[in-house]
Design brief:
Keywords: Cell membrane, Membrane, Transmembrane, Transmembrane helix. It is found in: Cell membrane. This is DedA family protein. It comes from Sphingomonas aurea. There is one protein chain. The protein is mainly alpha-helical and 201 residues long. The protein has one domain. 78% of the residues lie in helices and 0% in strands. Helix 1 crosses helix 2. 36% of the residues are buried.
Length: 201
Amino acid sequence: MTGFIVELIARGGYWGIFLLMALENIVPPIPSEVIMGLGGMAVARGQMQLGWLIAAGTAGTVAGNYFWYWIGRRFGYQGLKPFVDRWGRWLTVEWEDVEHITRFFHDRGGWVVFVFRFMPTFRTMVSLPAGMSAMPRWRFLLWTAAGSAIWNAVLAAAGLFLDRRFAELDRYVGPAAIALMVGITLFYIYRVVTWKPRARR
């Protein structure tokens, strides 16, 4: 099963990796751990090159994060509130969440963009306050790319290591990856269906 999934990723090529990683940071259907991990397995099987895999994954990550940075910069702090109020259900984000992350961002400075690249929950959300605070574009892109490159390299190397050292995991990794994707999708649907603003709870 793992071989089938890896082959699908390999068939999409580096553009497929770029697109999946970009989407993962806009509306996360598949976690980056799965995408880059299986990409690393494709490298072990000679279907991809590690350097290009990391470059494509990092470019996709930066593109996806820049989307939210642009939203934050385009609408500003108060201008973004109607957007969050209207689309919060689909983003499963409330304005209070945006306020929390914005305060945290302002209190600790731009290094947060780099550090948060290693945190699954906040790696995308931090792009909003970066844009809302008008963080220089070059600095946002630089720190996002730096953190993303390191994280993606770790994930790809893990996939490469596992494919070379533990061929017997093929029976488990594939079903586990599918179960993880299905679980995340179901959890997202559950959040959308049951989501209510705090004021209505």
